[in-house]
Design the sequence.
């Protein structure tokens, strides 16, 4: 099919949607006669045996009568748990594990800041397909880690959601790529009558984290009696920023001396700590200088850093005078320095989040055998957070050398931080020693003509001033604003003898704007260093114009689009002993695109950049044509077979056929056995195939550097070794950039899924289920391993083919030594096999007392037995129960156990009270892809023990309590207590998504006990 024909068909179908007053796809589980859930909880749980179209099949069925396991989460379930948003509810799913992306991660500089994503089975955000009423949604314009495209859960209009179907099995045969690990299908209400709304507000017990939510929905018409329904809904959600200083210890300070294990206590990571001074820190907002040779830019022998302005000293920050021993050990440090707790002063736990949206839907019965609808949704989601203004940050990050004569080297920037991990407090900063020239006249730094530079105290000696510090008058502020527009429509119905049809169209656009303030522009920094226009002596006296020049405001747009046509027809062919043989055939055509230019391009040279803005972006588009089929054969009343398949053809050159076969066997009424086998695939994402290089930074450990290399960096009178790092130049305390480069020649990942389970219903109202899953992905797309290239560089050997090495600038104190690696780069590759298996457990019980009183209990648990990566050379990396895989899980780990247990006591029509417990197992603080081996207590592997923390984090349990009271038939009042017992988050000094805690596992434990009250009404 030519591109022009496809474009014409797509445009015609979307344009005619309003004429159709289209209907939702059957795959969305739509039921024309369904009614909205009442504002007050019903005494009875949802009847999961009713015939609806469940996610994962094209035929009407019950949720427990298909070959794959499906979890159904209703809006009533979510309300009883006290969860305010659908994205929040999805994050609590037991099957959502490891590399999920939470809203709080935005405050830690996530590549895809401002978004939330789900990851079933711990297989990353791009292996879980998110549907909206059975139709695809536009990707979030930014890719997770610059590589993985996903759907932002914040684009869901919470107020009109009826239920969420979670298909925990491969579904490429029905939905295509991205459904390797499973499908999350958000299904909206098909009709709403009357006027309803809600108002709520909450705050943490310690007085921070205020949040508010309001909504209003109005609808009229009855599909059953009047043949139509129209409704409009709007909502607003706001949650305040939470700073690290708001939290309890140890999450609120860089001083970790109060954290002890087996007699070992943590360090004081306060900048220039008086408890354990470890070298002059560059992260405090005060400028210090050291004289340097104006020709070589090497520090003057025997000189020390000193205050640039001795009269102001440390200002509002605490001064510390070094001891004689410290001065001897750190000969370049100043006798007096300034201390600062960067966590307390600048850490952000939760960004300011704000959402609002409007949805409208019109549904109409067309004759007696057809139904149509047209729906529009708009959602705006914004995040904002603050940071430090920067002229030079943490000494553990990569150094940049700059001067007016030679310009500046290629900038490096690092990612987030916790002690022992790739970052540290004061993260997102560059260590930037820059040189203030002696003269203001443009030209070389050693020019003898012109006016002396007032910012250079060594100008009269014709020496450069080696400067570092942060900008006390500039503070970083980052915002994201996502606007999602969605228009969907279609028609379904029946004709003739058991023929059913459905035609659906979709158009969705996600417009994103990122705004940055307070980020230093490299060339402008060089400019003000040369011309003296920025007052380094008294920064607070600088004008707004000067600050705006040094750190200008920038807006960076990004956009993604999704357009789709889907049509299918089903028919009962003939009768089998168990019922009619059903067949469905259909097809879809869609176009998906992403245009996310870099916020920090290097097109005009390395000086035309900003410090600390990640330089990544992706641009791409493709057409996908997909015919599919499904056959359901009830061989016996107790035996159903299901066969489905889908062929996907991509305009980018890839294509794949995905089959699936399933069986449901019910030998007796109380027992149902099911199983399925399928094959699937995942197309390379835009981030993997057509993006700018993505660079992540890891700490450089002297233990991995050859002895001959280390010897070059010995401090005077000492020998630098892998174990005596105090004798090494501070230059070695840097990070190395690992750059993954897009590869347009990547092949799709292939997958094989096996699932098998059993449902047992021994008594009315009591149900148990167990399901086993086994997933194997081949040709897994991954970053190329960098160890061989790094070893070759440091040992003076040829660099392996396909790799690039960009060295850092030389150490000014050891200018003739081999420099550290700044960035090692290589394209993404199809190399590995990923294997995952585990077991799901679920149980539900309903017991009625009479007079409408009842107890409901629901448990949902997942156990991950294996999550491994197998390399071509046979090496196996095992991640289950550890903090790995960093490439898959973003350093948030793969806990083996995760689950929830919800218990509700219903008081008839009067109300209810619900307690929900959430459990996540502990894990080992190691990752096979970050050095290998397991951390053990006591230490048996040098470099793997945590010292002041046990090698295994403890499990985390928190309990939420919700009470609802119905006031007549119109009003419902409710109150929530989140983290009822004020459980504290387990200490995790490695993961980088949160400071000293894992935000995917235990965010509630960092925030502490919180309260929320509200009311709902319906007329």
Sequence:
């Amino acid at each position: 099919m030519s591109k022009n024909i496809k474009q014409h068909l797509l445009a015609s179908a979307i344009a005619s949607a309003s004429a159709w007053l289209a209907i939702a796809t059957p795959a969305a589980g739509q039921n024309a006669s369904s009614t909205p859930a009442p504002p007050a909880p019903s005494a009875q749980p949802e009847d999961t045996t009713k015939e609806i179209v469940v996610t994962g099949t094209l035929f009407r069925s019950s949720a427990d009568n298909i070959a794959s396991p499906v979890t159904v989460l209703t809006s009533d379930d979510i309300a009883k748990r006290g969860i305010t948003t659908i994205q929040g509810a999805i994050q609590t799913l037991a099957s959502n594990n490891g590399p999920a992306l939470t809203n709080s991660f935005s405050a830690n500089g996530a590549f895809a800041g401002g978004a939330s994503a789900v990851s079933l089975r711990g297989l990353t955000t791009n292996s879980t397909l998110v549907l909206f009423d059975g139709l695809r949604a536009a990707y979030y314009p930014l890719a997770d880690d610059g590589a993985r495209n996903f759907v932002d859960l914040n684009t869901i209009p919470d107020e009109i959601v009826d239920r969420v179907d979670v298909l925990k099995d491969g579904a490429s045969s029905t939905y295509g790529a991205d459904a390797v690990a499973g499908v999350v299908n958000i299904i909206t209400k098909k009709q709403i009558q009357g006027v309803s709304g809600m108002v709520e507000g909450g705050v943490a017990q310690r007085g921070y984290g205020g949040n508010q939510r309001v909504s209003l929905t109005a609808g009229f018409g009855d599909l059953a009696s009047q043949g139509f329904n129209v409704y409009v809904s709007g909502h607003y959600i706001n949650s305040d920023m939470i700073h690290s200083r708001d939290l309890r210890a140890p999450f609120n300070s860089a001083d970790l001396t109060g954290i002890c294990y087996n007699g070992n206590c943590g360090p004081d990571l306060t900048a220039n700590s008086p408890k354990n001074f470890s070298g002059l820190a560059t992260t405090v907002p005060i400028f210090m200088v050291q004289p340097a040779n104006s020709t070589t830019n090497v520090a003057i022998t025997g000189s020390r850093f000193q205050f640039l302005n001795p009269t102001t000293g440390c200002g509002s920050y605490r001064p510390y005078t070094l001891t004689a021993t410290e001065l001897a050990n750190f000969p370049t440090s100043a006798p007096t320095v300034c201390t600062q707790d960067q966590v307390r002063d600048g850490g952000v736990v939760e960004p300011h989040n704000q959402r609002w949206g409007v949805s409208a839907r019109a549904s109409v019965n067309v004759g007696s055998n057809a139904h149509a609808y047209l729906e529009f949704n708009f959602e705006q989601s914004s995040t904002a957070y603050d940071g430090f203004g920067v002229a030079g940050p943490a000494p553990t990050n990569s150094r940049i050398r700059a001067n007016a004569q030679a310009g500046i080297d290629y900038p490096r920037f690092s990612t987030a931080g916790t002690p022992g991990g790739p970052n540290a407090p004061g993260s997102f900063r560059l260590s930037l020693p820059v040189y203030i020239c002696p003269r203001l006249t443009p030209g070389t730094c050693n020019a003898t003509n012109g006016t002396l530079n007032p910012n250079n105290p060594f100008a009269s000696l014709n020496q450069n001033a080696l400067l570092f510090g942060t900008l006390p008058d500039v503070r970083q502020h980052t915002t994201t604003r996502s606007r999602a527009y969605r228009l969907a429509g279609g028609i379904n119905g029946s004709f003739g003898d058991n023929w059913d049809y459905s035609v659906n169209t979709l158009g969705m656009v996600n417009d994103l704007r990122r705004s940055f303030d307070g980020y230093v522009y490299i060339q402008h920094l060089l400019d003000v260093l040369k011309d003296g226009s920025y007052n380094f002596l008294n920064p607070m006296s600088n004008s707004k114009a000067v600050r705006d020049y040094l750190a200008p405001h920038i807006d960076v747009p990004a956009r993604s689009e999704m357009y789709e046509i889907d049509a299918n027809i089903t028919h009962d062919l003939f009768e089998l002993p168990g019922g009619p043989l059903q067949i469905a055939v259909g097809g879809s055509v869609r176009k998906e695109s992403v245009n996310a230019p870099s916020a920090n391009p290097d097109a005009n040279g390395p000086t035309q950049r900003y410090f600390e803005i990640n330089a990544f972006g992706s641009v791409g588009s493709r057409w996908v044509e997909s015919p599919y089929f499904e056959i359901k054969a009830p061989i016996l009343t107790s035996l159903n077979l299901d066969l489905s398949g889908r062929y996907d053809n991509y305009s980018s050159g890839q294509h794949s056929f995905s089959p699936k076969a399933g069986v449901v066997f019910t030998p007796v009424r109380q027992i149902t056995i099911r199983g399925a086998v399928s094959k699937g695939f995942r197309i390379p994402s835009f981030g993997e195939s057509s993006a700018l290089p993505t660079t992540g930074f890891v700490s450089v450990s002297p233990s991995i550097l050859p002895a001959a290399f280390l010897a070059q960096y010995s401090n005077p009178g000492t020998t630098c070794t892998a174990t005596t790092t105090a004798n090494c130049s501070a230059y070695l305390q840097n990070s190395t950039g690992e750059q993954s480069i897009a590869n347009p020649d990547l092949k799709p990942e292939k997958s094989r899924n096996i699932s098998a389970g059993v449902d047992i219903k021994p008594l009315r109202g009591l149900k148990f289920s167990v399901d086993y899953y086994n997933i194997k992905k081949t040709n897994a797309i991954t970053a190329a391993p960098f160890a061989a290239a790094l070893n070759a560089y440091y040992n003076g050997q040829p660099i392996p083919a396909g790799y690039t090495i960009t060295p850092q600038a030389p150490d000014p104190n050891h200018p003739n030594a081999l420099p550290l690696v700044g960035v090692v780069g290589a394209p993404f590759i199809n190399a590995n096999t990923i294997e995952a298996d585990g077991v799901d457990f679920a149980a539900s019980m309903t017991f009625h007392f009479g007079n409408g009183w009842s107890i409901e209990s629901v448990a949902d648990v997942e156990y991950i037995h294996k999550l491994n990566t197998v390399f071509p050379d046979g090496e196996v990396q095992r991640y289950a129960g550890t903090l790995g895989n960093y490439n898959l899980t973003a350093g948030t780990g793969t806990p083996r156990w995760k689950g929830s247990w919800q218990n509700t006591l219903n008081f008839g029509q009067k109300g209810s009270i619900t307690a929900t417990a959430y459990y996540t197992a502990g894990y080992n603080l190691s990752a096979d892809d970050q050095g290998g081996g397991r951390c053990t207590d006591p230490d048996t592997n040098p470099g793997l023990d945590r010292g002041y923390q046990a090698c295994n984090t403890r499990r985390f349990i928190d309990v939420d309590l919700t009470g609802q009271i119905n006031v007549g038939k119109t009003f419902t009042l409710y109150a929530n207590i989140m983290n009822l017992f004020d459980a504290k988050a387990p200490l995790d000094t490695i993961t980088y998504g949160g400071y000293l805690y894992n935000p995917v596992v235990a965010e509630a434990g960092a925030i502490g006990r919180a309260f929320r009250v509200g009311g709902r009404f319906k007329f």
Remarks:
- The two ends are 52 Å apart (CA to CA).
- The first helix runs from residue 3 to 15.
